[in-house]
Amino acid sequence: MLDYLLFASAFLASAISPGADTFLILSRAIESKRQAWIAAAGITTGKVLMVSAAFFGLATLIRDNADLLTVLKFFGAGFLVFRAVQLWNATRSTKPSRGGSEYFAALAIGFSNPQPFAFYLSIIPAVVAQTFLPGLLAIVVIGFGLVSALYILLAGRLSNWLGQVANYQKVNRSLAIVFLVLAVIVVSR
Known about the structure:
about 190 residues; mainly alpha; 10 helices; globular
């Protein structure tokens, strides 16, 4: 039980801190709560895949294969740059993307981000002997669901202020800059 508590505490602290996944949810929530929840589902799926891979030792293969890790890093950074360009050019009349494409785009960013992989590589070996995968996955799904709800609520609180076109554009462009910085960080790690 103590190992589950350790994992849950570390996961929640990591998940709530602003990063590519939480900024993606926030940026989607500004446009549509539905799109934000679809993005959250995609990111959560990526996290479930990473935890499963780390639990079964497959993350070691990725960590030891520098070329594969490099491809994942550039894929993730490329998506962040793509999303930054979309945000920079977004207007209030921009149509939200379709649910399926949003889900898979979020899954790609969630799975290709090396920061969570590094986190899972460090924490999973410490708890794997005393835990079962379904328990860890429940922590990830419930925990990231709560984090997503927090970021969606934050965007909702800002919605009146964002109703003004100038403010909407300022927030989108600020998020675009954050995504570009995150892309540089992803590639440089």
